[in-house]
């Protein structure tokens, strides 16, 4: 019996670059900075990002700050009434980019029919658009992330569909990856 493979990855600063030519590359949330909330979101980033990367704080100490940050950012996004059709433009106007060698990585996994599960605490709609605009959104790519919820007239609803922050969830059971793996195995 052949061994079945599976690749699990984060997105922001894992599949995407951290910096390019000395400038930070935007995260999925930062891609939305082209909207009116630019200054407010940058202020939140400047306040909370140092807490997120502070090695002297335990995850338990960081948790309330990360929830507070996540909540405030999402409230700002809701206020902008972002429509689904605006996301492609936001990604095109951003300097978001995948890491060097991304095409070989994505294409090789697709060719070998190896499922790629991308877990992200970012904005899933933006993440998908980055991958789509780079022409590597293959059928083997599965994304578990925070998605915007749009209503009939394409206005942002005041919630995220399946909202959860992957970074804050520590689940060592591998239930979600196994579900993705099993569905890929059956196809």
TrEMBL record:
<keyword id="KW-0460">Magnesium</keyword>
<keyword id="KW-0963">Cytoplasm</keyword>
<dbReference type="GO" id="GO:0005737">
    <property type="term" value="C:cytoplasm"/>
</dbReference>
<keyword id="KW-0547">Nucleotide-binding</keyword>
<dbReference type="Pfam" id="PF05822">
    <property type="entry name" value="UMPH-1"/>
</dbReference>
<comment type="similarity">
    <text>Belongs to the pyrimidine 5'-nucleotidase family.</text>
</comment>
<dbReference type="InterPro" id="IPR006434">
    <property type="entry name" value="Pyrimidine_nucleotidase_eu"/>
</dbReference>
<keyword id="KW-0546">Nucleotide metabolism</keyword>
<dbReference type="InterPro" id="IPR023214">
    <property type="entry name" value="HAD_sf"/>
</dbReference>
<dbReference type="GO" id="GO:0008253">
    <property type="term" value="F:5'-nucleotidase activity"/>
</dbReference>
<keyword id="KW-0378">Hydrolase</keyword>
<comment type="function">
    <text>Specifically hydrolyzes 7-methylguanosine monophosphate (m(7)GMP) to 7-methylguanosine and inorganic phosphate. The specific activity for m(7)GMP may protect cells against undesired salvage of m(7)GMP and its incorporation into nucleic acids. Also has weak activity for CMP. UMP and purine nucleotides are poor substrates.</text>
</comment>
<keyword id="KW-0479">Metal-binding</keyword>
<dbReference type="InterPro" id="IPR036412">
    <property type="entry name" value="HAD-like_sf"/>
</dbReference>
<dbReference type="GO" id="GO:0000166">
    <property type="term" value="F:nucleotide binding"/>
</dbReference>
<dbReference type="GO" id="GO:0009117">
    <property type="term" value="P:nucleotide metabolic process"/>
</dbReference>
<comment type="subunit">
    <text>Monomer.</text>
</comment>
<dbReference type="GO" id="GO:0000287">
    <property type="term" value="F:magnesium ion binding"/>
</dbReference>
<protein>
    <submittedName>
        <fullName>5'-nucleotidase, cytosolic IIIB</fullName>
    </submittedName>
</protein>
């Amino acid at each position: 019996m052949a061994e079945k493979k599976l690749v699990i990855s984060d997105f922001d600063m894992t599949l995407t670059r951290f910096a390019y030519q000395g400038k930070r590359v935007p995260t999925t949330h930062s891609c939305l900075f082209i909207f009116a909330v630019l200054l407010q979101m940058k202020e939140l980033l400047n306040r909370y990002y140092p807490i997120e990367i502070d090695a002297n704080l335990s995850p338990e100490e960081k948790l309330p700050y990360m929830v507070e940050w996540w909540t405030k950012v999402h409230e700002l996004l809701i206020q902008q009434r972002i429509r689904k059709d605006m996301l492609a433009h936001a990604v095109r106007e951003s300097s978001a980019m995948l890491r060097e060698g991304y095409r070989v990585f994505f294409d090789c996994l697709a060719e070998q029919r190896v499922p790629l599960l991308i877990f992200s605490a970012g904005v899933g709609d933006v993440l998908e658009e980055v991958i789509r605009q780079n022409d590597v959104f293959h059928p083997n790519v599965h994304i578990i992330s925070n998605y915007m919820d749009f209503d009939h007239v394409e206005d942002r609803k005041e919630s995220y569909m399946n909202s959860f922050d992957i970074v804050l969830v520590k689940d060592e059971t591998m239930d979600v990856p196994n579900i993705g793996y099993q569905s890929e195995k059956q196809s």
